[in-house]
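Each field is listed here:
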Amino acid sequence: MALGQRFPIPSRTMTEALFAAFQLASADNHPIHYDVEYCRRHGHPHMLAHGFQVLIQSAPGAGTFPAYVGAALVGFIEQSSKFLRPVYVGDTLYPMLEIVELTPQRTTGVVVLRSGIRNQRGEAVMEGMMKFLIRRRDPAG
């Protein structure tokens, strides 16, 4: 692993079906996320994605990070995120993970990934951080 190493995640267009699936999974029934007319009355062009619906687009399992780490992955230990711009039905999101910190320990280490998501206009819609505990491949080194 190296600082600056990147792990892209495939893009995804936010469809009404994804909004409905997220509503079902989260039980979040606020009309800003599921009622187009309510959204328009409140100045939004379409349904507004829930922050967690945006966040899950950066799930490492959707990209190459888990395959790269393999069986050395011990656990996902921390996550934070900031939501920078609204995401609406029809927006396409482009997630990217990047190693920004490596903290070796005796038999494990902590890998910090910067998570970022841009929309189809190249605008940052979310930025954050994830930490993983990884088993060292060479505990002595």
Q: What stands out?
A: The first helix runs from residue 16 to 26. The two ends are 14 Å apart (CA to CA). The chain has one domain: 6-135.
